[in-house]
Amino acid sequence: MTNIEADLQKNPQFDWSASECELGIDRSGIINIGWLCSDRPCQMGKAAKTALLWEDHQGVEKVFTYNDIRILSNNIAAYLEGLGLKPGERICLFMDRVPELYIGFLGILKLGAVAQPLFSAFGEESLFTRLDNAQTSAIITQRKHALKVRKIRDQLPNLRYIIIVDAGEGALKEREIAMDMEKLPKADDYKVYPTKAETSSVLHYTSGTTGQPKGAQHVHYSIVSQYITAKWVLDLKDDDIYWCNADPGWVTGTSYGIIGPWVNGVTQAVLDSGFNAERWYKFIEKYKITVWYSAPTAIRLLMREGKETVQKFNLSSLRHLCSVGEPLNAEAVHWSKETFGRPFHDTFWQTETGCIVITNHPALPVKPGSMGKPFPGIEAAVLNPQTFEPVNQTGIAGLIALKPGWPSMVRSYWNNPTGYQNKFKNGWYLCGDRASIDIDGYYWFMGRDDDVINTGGHLVGPFEIESALLEHPAVAESAAVAKPDPINMEVVKAFVVLKPGYAPSDDMELDIMNLIRKRLSPLAMPQEIEFIDALPKTRSGKIVRRILRAKEFNEPLGDMSTVMND
Ligand code: PRX
Fold this sequence. Notes:
By secondary structure, the protein is α/β, with parallel strands linked by helices. It folds into 2 domains: 3-437, ANL, N-terminal domain (Rossmann fold); 451-553, ANL, C-terminal domain (GMP Synthetase, Chain A, domain 3). The chain is built from 17 helices and 27 strands. The strands form 6 sheets. A 9-stranded mixed sheet has the order 2-1-11-10-12-13-14-15-16, with helices on both faces. The protein has a 5-stranded parallel sheet with strand order 4-3-5-6-7, with helices on both faces. Adenosine-5'-monophosphate-propyl ester (PRX) binds next to helix 9, strand 14, strand 21 and strand 22.
């Protein structure tokens, strides 16, 4: 029987407070995610149980028990405190998927500081934008990524420490210090900071259409949602070996790559390596992964590899599969049934929701191509885009909206209260996506309702790309839009108007692509650049990306009445 069935049998009326009870917390008392993910499992008799099975791309392995992560996160918290870092300060984690990232996350929270994880493939400009906005006090990083921090540290007066976890004997530069996690002074009885339900915990940056990325500010109370959704949707049980292949630079990698499994006291495996079908299958076989949380782009890559590859491995340990980040096409669900003997279960949610909100939980029959139904305790609807009232009719497209109030809902955007207010209409939180609901109450995803580009499950904001493009000496104006892609769903395409005196060429295209890859990230790099004479604009001079995007997707152009026609 699945966890959700067993729990609902005992108590059919869903209430978040039941999860608080299971966690032994009280909304008005002390709630600390770092403590609940490491000390509590130890108190529940799991001190010697494996918390983390870690392997890197060269096959180097490390194993950490719950007691190990408890002590090591205490040590890190005490070390950071010793540096003078205070509760509430933002401490960035900028690393590959090394153990220090996962355990450091808990350490920062135990100190009462705010963990700001950033994807280690970010270039200096993406990094700068986010550290500057959050007025980050310290960054924990690796030697290879410290080079990017060095380039921007002079413009970041608040950044007091650049903490390098693998400094070795290497020379340290200004503000840099070495921290060897395994050699830190022991702080076994570290006094975890008494954070409350509404104390800030995690700051994840996410992209919208306008302006720079926004810092979604989460609180310690979010753990109530992450606990129960991991238990019910991922169906995590005591003897599971769980693998979430998302990077903690993105919300899936923290909500379900750190908090969800550890607060449930489950063993999780981490592979610090990019995509490689054989390596991934070998990893599942070797560690006997039972529950796997992945994403459609990875599934499509595996599908492309074909049957011969998968047949080389024994993957019979897998018992439950979930997917997130992009629409999970019906074909991928059928393929997974055929290949693994079980379907991928779709889960829909966002950085802002903090937890899964619409899903095919394991007790719900999967309708391939649908995202499933709202999670118990989540009130969702599809709204008419003009009136912002629920459509209340099956099969009609509208805006996905959620009634605020679940525990892990984002509390604000860092330094951007107006951006946050703009996400609400008529008492509903708008996700920025479109869907329809069928007769059985299943949600069918239709697309984004804005210009954000979803490439391989990662959101990229056009504004950030366009701002970076302007730094190229030849670029006068630009527009970044989504272009369909068979594997990544969407990739970035840039339309560029050159300054007088510059002519389009292959070299120019490459030079511009490289600039974006280096400054922002490989995800944001345009896969194609089209040089044009002028961009479509409204009479007031606003670029109309919708037209450029519609052409890429062969869609109708829509209302053209406000677009200048010169
Ligand atoms: O557009 C939706 C898409 O990803 C967006 C959220 O991205 P982010 O905040 O980066 O969080 C990603 C992981 C939680 C959504 O607004 N998205 C996410 N899950 C799905 C999805 N689109 C379709 N189907 C999904 N299951």
